[in-house]
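>> Question from a student workshop board

For tomorrow's exercise we were told to take the sequence and the ligand below, predict the bound structure, and bring the output to class. My setup keeps failing. Could a helper post the expected result so I can at least see what it should look like? The ligand is zinc ion.
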Amino acid sequence: MEFTASSANLLKIKADCLIVLADAQINGVLASDDTELHGDLKALAKASNFDGKTGSAKTLHTPTLPFSQVILIGITGATSRQKQIKVIADAASKAIASGAKKVLWVAARAADDGHWQAAIVARNVLHASYKYTKNDKVVASRLKTLIYWTGSRAEQQLASTGLDFGAAVGNGMNCARELGNLPANFCTPSYLADRASDMARDNASLDCQILDNADMHKLAMGSLLSVTAGTVEPAKFIIMNYRGGAKSEAPTVLIGKAVTFDSGGISLKPGGGMDEMKFDMCGGASVFGVMQALCASGLAINVIGLVPAVENMPSGTATRPGDVVTSMSGQTIEVLNTDAEGRLILCDAITYSERFKPRAVIDIATLTGACVMALGKQASGLLANDDDLADELLASGTRSGDRAWQLPLWEEYDAQLKSNFADMANIGGREAGTITAACFLARYAKKLPWAHIDIAGTAWLSGAQKGATGRPVPLLMDYLQQRANPST
Ligand code: BES
Ligand code: MN
Ligand code: ZN
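>> Workshop helper replied:
Here is what the output should look like for this input. Compare the format with yours to find the bug.
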């Protein structure tokens, strides 16, 4: 899909669908800049009882205008970023559902941030156009071109860079969604490793290296390897290196949990809804999405993506409850529950990340059912050992509409991990499950500025809308963009 910004005469732009975000009087970008069309639209709004409030939309067909469809989208009351994003997401769905090949999109007046609004539009239009490749029952989007209209040349320039960035984020989300939606018999650790190699081959700024079981043995990743003990699928440790910044610049490391199927292992999960544990690699998928978005946007920053990829299965060779394993850090772990496997692969990846002397390490994981109970599908859980890093990630969540909410990482919670047989247990009891999981990880991140994002509630939707969401690619890309280019 192609996105371009324009400030040319609106009536001279050819498109089959005009989308206008405005109030009842069509006061938006248009009001001051294109009086001819403005008058027509004002009359149409009046005749169709368009009230301009958020949530209201009118699809109109009129011979007086050179567009076969005109869609008015209400913006009155969209006072927060979150509400504006909702309006734009709804409008994006309508743009795709219209069946148009070429859409002319008239933005709401950008009070402060034309770059931001254009990025949100491109991202949401791509998000709305996503179709799972293996599903033939859903009709593919016909949209080829979106022309994003701004009132002035100055705004056009801002919008243009915003569209590029938003398109990179939208495509990155769709990459993460596709990997998430693929079933575990296709999307194995080996499959993920092949996709990483493909991406590195196609992008000059990206390198990739794949470690196999033997390499991980040599590195003494005993904790990670204990999770893969029960499966016949070979584990892969995927390392992606995006070089967008100066050689001397310390990288940001992203670590994504990729359990391609989480049966629970010997601590087998109950049967209901177990299919959804194919989504237990969505943290890893989000790292793939970010890497792709970095290559597309060319952000001037160095980012390493680490994706430990394993399958968690029960068998005669599987790890048992009560087994004690030694992590790469040397710390020993009593595995009281083989279903608390995410932290067992992440801890070794965190230790591995030390070699990059990173500026920050952020892990992303569908780690705890408790996080779904605490925050539902709205916010990802955020825990960190560095307040500045936490604040920056929270701000990125708000700005991108891909929100996170912080939970405390107090040492009193860490006490729940006590074991009589090892340095720590891998579970901390019934209470505060999201926090004790993060406390476990924090024991491996003592030398690093580190944050953990629990996406158990936000990575996918269930029920009729079952499918991966592509979160938190927008949050992470906003954070990296702020790092690379603080002025935008
Ligand atoms: N992948 C799950 C977490 C999960 C569960 C995410 C449901 C989304 C929905 C994780 O590996 C897990 O099984 N966690 C256990 C931990 C427990 C054994 C301490 C959980 O949350 O029940
Ligand atoms: Mn589990
Ligand atoms: Zn899991």
